[in-house]
Design a protein that fits this description.
By secondary structure, this protein is an alpha/beta fold. 31% of the residues lie in helices and 26% in strands.
Length: 340
């Protein structure tokens, strides 16, 4: 089968890999219908991480081709959406709703890689969710978004305690930040302030529910947000980048007693202890437990209540994955969908 391999930073190739097969009775084999490139894939692409023939891809939807003898909730032919982290669904951590930190957790990117034609999904019952039926083609981008970027944005808004009467700030206008806007709007936020310098992303943010746009970053961005909130700051802040600057802007933009939901993959982030102490903010985040939210998100998409698929602004065949990486790296695309 064909699959995307990152040999080194900037070196993405579509190559032949061995077809997956059932190894454990809890496995399922799925035939990918669509996959995509994530903003977090750009960290190794740009050299912040050091890939070495890494199997790429962790967002995926597809059709079940084969199931192991212990799989109970899925059948061959089911259309499924999967989380970007494999989870057993039965350990204490999973039962508490933190499936991305399952005691059996495996990150799909690297170990499995779903920028590919087929994939073996361990612990299929705990990782995959079947849709109510076979989806229309128009729904597939939105269902794909649920696999990570929507689920991550949803977790960020939840962790930040977005809700009625709350002012929500979103630091980061990539796909996750935009999904955080959508989530905050669905959760009933009164006002949503987005940090963005890109006109196309600003337009989509407003479509998803943003009420204000701030183009300033760092301390200037914090000052501007304080101006918009009577000097108090946001009740809830989503951090969707993972850099030192974005984390500090998120914390400093949040009023005392407020909450920061951080989901950007942290790279060299260090928070001064004294500033954290006196900020009096709640911090919660990390890899999103997407599996917790999948049933709800799939139903919202199925009912056409939300349309997260609009976040994909470039569609390419899997064979052109390298161009997709270049487009996102050069900010010519927000998020690239790969067809199979």
């Amino acid at each position: 089968m064909r699959a995307v391999i990152m040999h080194a930073p900037g070196d993405v190739r579509v190559e032949e890999r061995e077809d997956p097969r059932i190894i454990d009775p809890t496995d399922a084999i799925i035939r990918l219908t669509a996959t995509c490139i994530c903003g977090s894939d750009l960290w190794p692409y740009r050299g912040a991480d050091q890939p070495d023939h890494q199997h790429m891809g962790h967002e995926y939807v597809g059709v079940v081709d084969e199931v192991g003898s212990a799989v109970e909730t899925l059948e061959v032919g089911d259309f499924v959406v999967g989380s970007f982290v494999i989870s057993c669904g039965t350990c204490e951590i999973c039962r508490a709703g933190h499936q991305s930190r399952c005691v059996n957790a495996v990150f799909v990117d690297g170990a499995i890689g779903t920028q590919a034609e087929r994939a073996r999904i361990p612990f299929a019952d705990g990782t995959l969710v079947a849709t109510p039926g076979q989806p229309d083609a128009a729904l597939i981008p939105s269902l794909l978004a649920a696999s990570d970027v929507l689920g991550t944005g949803w977790f960020a808004a939840d962790a930040a305690q977005a809700g009625p009467g709350r002012i929500v700030a979103v630091v980061g206008d990539g796909a996750v930040g935009l999904m955080g806007v959508l989530a905050a709007q669905q959760m009933g936020a009164e006002r949503i302030i987005v940090v963005s310098r890109h006109a196309d992303r600003q337009a989509l943010a407003r479509e998803y529910g943003a009420t204000d746009i701030i183009e300033e970053r760092g301390d200037e961005g914090v000052a501007r947000l304080k101006e918009l909130t009577d000097g108090l700051g946001a009740h809830s802040t989503i951090e969707a980048v993972g850099s030192q600057e974005s984390m500090m802007q998120a914390i400093r933009s949040t009023r005392p007693g407020g909450s920061v939901g951080f989901v950007g993959v942290s790279h060299d982030v260090q928070i001064p202890g004294d500033e954290l102490f006196f900020s009096a903010v709640h911090l919660h985040g990390g890899p999103a437990p997407v599996r917790r939210y999948l049933p709800e998100l799939i139903q919202l998409i199925w009912d056409r209540t939300i349309d997260p698929g609009k976040v994909f602004d470039l569609t390419l065949p899997l064979a052109d994955a390298a161009e997709g990486y270049r487009a996102m790296d050069e900010r010519r695309a927000t998020k690239v969908l790969l067809t199979l």
